[in-house]
Structures are given as structure tokens and as C-alpha cells.
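Q: What residues go here?
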């Protein structure tokens, strides 16, 4: 609980009763269409590798992943945090919606969680199908792995805090990667970069002040997370300048490693029974 500001209002006589009210889940997600994980598992077992991309330290790369394919992100050399963006390959305005994903699945993602797209599309873009760090759970500090709370490290916040310019924050890495992919330059690419899935990052909120914290990722060489592409995707991944994010980011101080993206395609027969989700069914009238 945070400390009340000096001079703030006195607690009312019902304060203890108010604090004692049990919470309710905002979005009970049992009513969402559930992913058919056994189907994904069978499809993954039958899949063959069709592409890969190495993301160098403090850089970003884009890689297309077709609907029905799997994207595997791993640490080929050592602990490394990645900042992941997803776009609809055919329409980059449909992109990963970190905030709504957090509201639906919680602050951190693992097997069975889905990555939802922005309004007005709001549909699953990808489903987490494997996570070698699922054993981590929650630690004594409230830390968990693979968060959807941390936005991305960016040069604007860094400048605000330090007065320094730094060009290899994840925001800039993703901007350069997307600009290189589209060929449209940084001005067109930057507004398409969005809040991320912080792959391998170990984060939480402090119990006393509620501040966002990070600690060194438990990832080691060979750790991985896998996503099933529910629609045609362009994935953008930055190898964060924070490395394992155990000390600081937005600098060249931390030891960094590359990240490996691999794409695996199952045969069509292995996907029988699965359908790419349509865009959201809301009529779009807004009462107008
Ligand atoms: Zn970063």
C-alpha cells in the first residue's frame, strides 16, 4: 500500500470495510474462445523450419510469419530480453494491443495466453504455445516472466530522465527494423511501433510503492518461447540494450546477446479443425 500524501484526506470511518471488499476479475476469460492446444501441439510436431532471422544485440529485425505457422524466439548464446511487436502483414494498422491483452490474460503471458490486436479488429493475433520458462511462476518479489506491462524502452523517456540522446532503445530498434522492412523511412514507421510483449523479461510491481521493477531474466542459453500465428503476421523484435535487464537499459553498458527467430510451418492437414479468427463482430455503430 502506498503512503498517503502529507496533507491528504483523512481515512473515512468505512476505510477498513472498503479495503476488505473482495476483488472481482474484470474480464473473466473463461468465456473467450479457448485455443485448441493439443491441435497446436500436433501441428508443431509435424512442422518443418522455413525461415530464420538473427536479431543482433541492440538491433531490431522484422520477420513475416504466415497464419498457421509458429514463431520460435530463443536465446542462442545467453540471457537476453526481447521487445516484440506484431502487425497484420497485410495491414500494419492492425497491431498488437498490449493493454487489452493484459486486461484479458494478466500482466505476464505463458502457454495458452493470446496476443490480441488493436481496435476495431480485436482478435487473437497469436497464441503462446510453448514457454521454457513456465517453471518460473511468481517469485518472492512478485516478479514474473514475459510481461505486457512495460511498454518498451524509448529515447524520449531516456532523454527526459537523463538529458542524453541514445539511439538503440527498443523503440528506435523497432523503428529502424520496420523502416527497413517497408522501405518507407523512419517517419512512416515510427507511429506504427507500439507497446510490446517483453519476451524473457522478469518484471513486476513493488509491493510498497507500486512501481514497475525489473530483475535479471532467468533465461539461459537455449531458452525459448513459441507463438502460433493466428493471422498473417509481421513480427518485429528488438534485442534490448538492457541485455538481461538486471541493472539498466537505454545504454551500452549491459552485456547483450543476440536473439534467434525461427519460423516453422506445419502441413495443411495438421491444421484441420483450426480457422484463422475473423475480425471482431462489433457493428461499429457507437450509438451514433
Ligand atoms: Zn528495451
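A:
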Amino acid at each position: 500500500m502506498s503512503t498517503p500524501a502529507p496533507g491528504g484526506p483523512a481515512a473515512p470511518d468505512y476505510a477498513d470495510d472498503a479495503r476488505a471488499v473482495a476483488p472481482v476479475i474484470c474480464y473473466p476469460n473463461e468465456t473467450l474462445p479457448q485455443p485448441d492446444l493439443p491441435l497446436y501441439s500436433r501441428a508443431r510436431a509435424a512442422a518443418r523450419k522455413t525461415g530464420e532471422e538473427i536479431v543482433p544485440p541492440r538491433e531490431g529485425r522484422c520477420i513475416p510469419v504466415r497464419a498457421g505457422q509458429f514463431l520460435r524466439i530463443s536465446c542462442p548464446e545467453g540471457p537476453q530480453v526481447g521487445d516484440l511487436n506484431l502487425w497484420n502483414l497485410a495491414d500494419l494498422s492492425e497491431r498488437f494491443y498490449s493493454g487489452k491483452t493484459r486486461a484479458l490474460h494478466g500482466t505476464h503471458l505463458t502457454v495458452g495466453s493470446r496476443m490480441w490486436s488493436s481496435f476495431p479488429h480485436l482478435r487473437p493475433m497469436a497464441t503462446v504455445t510453448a514457454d521454457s520458462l513456465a517453471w518460473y511462476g511468481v517469485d518472492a518479489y512478485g516478479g514474473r516472466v514475459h510481461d505486457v506491462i512495460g511498454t518498451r524502452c524509448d529515447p524520449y523517456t531516456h532523454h527526459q530522465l537523463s538529458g542524453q540522446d541514445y539511439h538503440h532503445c527498443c523503440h528506435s530498434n523497432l523503428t529502424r527494423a520496420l523502416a527497413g522492412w517497408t522501405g518507407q523511412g523512419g517517419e512512416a514507421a515510427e507511429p506504427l511501433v507500439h507497446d510490446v510483449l517483453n519476451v524473457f523479461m522478469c518484471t513486476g510491481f513493488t509491493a510498497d510503492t507500486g512501481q514497475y521493477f525489473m530483475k535479471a531474466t532467468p533465461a539461459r542459453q537455449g531458452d525459448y518461447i513459441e507463438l502460433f500465428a493466428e493471422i498473417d503476421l509481421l513480427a518485429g523484435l528488438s534485442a534490448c540494450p538492457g541485455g538481461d535487464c538486471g541493472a539498466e537499459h537505454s545504454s551500452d553498458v549491459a552485456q547483450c546477446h543476440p536473439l534467434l527467430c525461427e519460423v516453422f510451418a506445419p502441413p495443411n492437414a495438421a491444421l484441420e479443425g483450426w480457422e484463422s479468427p475473423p475480425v471482431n463482430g462489433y457493428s461499429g455503430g457507437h450509438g451514433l
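A: Context that may help when evaluating the design: Residues 83, 152-153, 169-170, 240, 242, 249 surround zinc ion (CB under 6 Å). The mean pLDDT is 95.
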